[in-house]
Design goal:
Layout: H1 5-20, H2 25-36, H3 41-47, H4 54-91, H5 109-123, E1 127-128, E2 134-136, H6 137-140, E3 159-161, E4 170-172, H7 178-186, E5 191-200, E6 212-222, H8 227-242, E7 248-252, E8 258-268, E9 272-282, H9 284-289, E10 298-305, H10 306-314, H11 327-330
Parallel strand pairs: 1-5
Antiparallel strand pairs: 2-4, 3-4, 5-6, 6-10, 7-8, 8-9, 9-10
Helix pairs in contact: 1-4, 2-4, 5-10
The structure holds adenosine-5'-[phenylalaninyl-phosphate].
Adenosine-5'-[phenylalaninyl-phosphate] binds near residues 203, 215, 255 and 277.
Length: about 325
């Protein structure tokens, strides 16, 4: 081995040139082992001293120590600059990468169901109306043949709105049926309408009951409308929404504003029946209350739960899922 100064200068130059082009931590470590490691070139150089005269050894030793120190400093500064550029690399934005799409919002499943039901009834010849969520007692109960102190008022656990200026007896509507009256007061038969909207009840929640939920009211008034017209319309609606094979059943029920009254349930999830709506032939007293002659006109009305329809359609067991704002639940309806 050449142990003279020239060799040492060459070694220093070669090491400095090599490290300059290294980019990875692994390559720099290999460089360190190669030049500064226990069996590296600087160590080898020191090993070769043992055969030298002491004068020459002192001189070259001092030179070799300087080179070693120089290479160690090179190594330190290269490692530091590599760490810095690592950070910069991770900060670097690659514009060629595919973007992450923004997660756009979507229509709430209740509103999707509401739209679907409105479209179905629209195809069956119904017009769509909307009405106020705060109602007067007159429309929510009195004109629907439910006078004050009538026990039937207990069916609708009502949330009363107090002290709105001078107007008393306002309620958050417990059902959409007040709109039957408003429509009949303002339109001549034939009438064929549906009215979707939000309802509020002062009642405990469970899997099929919420304290606020949505209904769609339906009303048909004309000459010669009978119970069969109602059944066939509602069966047809059920087939459109839930499929051709849908099983629906009618059972007697009581509502003061219809006679006879019924409830319609739909079969879902292997022999489970869920009540979807109340319905019936509009009561002659209600027709009288809006100035229609029950001897000329007849009609049917119904009020169906929109969340209940979605529960049946999508096999949802708990109505409270609709209001929990759980993203995992909601994103299924995108
Ligand atoms: C009524 O509200 C009547 N106005 C319906 C009606 C209209 C009958 C026209 C006759 C003629 P009921 O309280 O049963 O009836 O409610 C009707 C439907 O709304 C129920 O079948 C159910 O689908 C839904 N519903 C009622 N209460 C709740 C509740 N707390 N949470 C969720 N859905 C409900």
């Amino acid at each position: 081995m050449n142990t003279n100064k020239t060799y040492l200068e060459k070694l220093k130059l070669e090491a400095a040139n090599t490290i300059e082009n290294l980019l990875s931590a692994e390559d720099i470590e290999t460089w360190r082992i190669n030049y500064l490691g226990r069996k590296g070139k600087i160590s080898e150089f020191f090993q070769s001293f043992k055969d030298m005269k002491s004068e020459e050894r002192n001189e070259l030793g001092s030179l070799a120590n300087n080179v070693k120190k120089f290479l160690e400093e090179l190594y330190d500064s290269k490692t530091k600059s590599l760490n810095k550029s690592d950070i910069q690399e991770s900060d670097f934005f690659d514009y060629s990468l595919p973007g992450t799409p923004n997660s756009a919002g979507s229509i709430h499943p209740t509103n999707q169901m509401m739209q679907e039901i409105c479209i179905a009834f629209n195809k069956l010849g119904f017009n769509i109306y909307e009405g106020p969520e705060i109602e007067s007692e007159k429309y929510a109960f009195d004109k629907l043949n439910i006078p004050t102190n009538h026990p039937a008022r207990d069916i609708w656990d009502t949330i009363w709105v107090k002290d709105v200026g001078d107007i008393k007896s306002l309620v958050l509507r417990p059902h959409t049926s007040p709109m039957q009256i408003r429509i009949m007061e303002n339109n001549e038969p034939p009438i064929r309408v549906v009215i979707p909207g939000k309802c509020y009840r002062y009642e405990a929640t469970d899997n099929t009951h919420e304290w606020h939920f949505h209904q769609i009211e339906g009303l048909v008034i004309d000459k010669n409308i009978n119970f069969s017209n109602m059944k066939s319309t509602l069966f047809e609606f059920a087939r459109i929404i839930f499929g051709e094979e849908t099983k629906a059943r009618f059972r007697c029920d009581f509502f003061p504003f219809v006679e006879p009254g019924a409830e319609m349930s739909i079969n879902f999830k292997e022999n489970t029946w869920l009540e979807l709506m109340g319905a019936g032939m509009v009561h002659p007293k209600v027709l009288n209350n809006v100035g229609l002659d029950p001897n000329i006109y007849s009609g049917f009305a119904f009020g169906l739960g929109i969340e209940r329809a979605a529960m049946i359609k999508y096999g949802i067991n708990n109505i409270r899922d609709f209001y929990a704002n759980d993203y995992q639940f909601l994103k299924q309806f995108k």
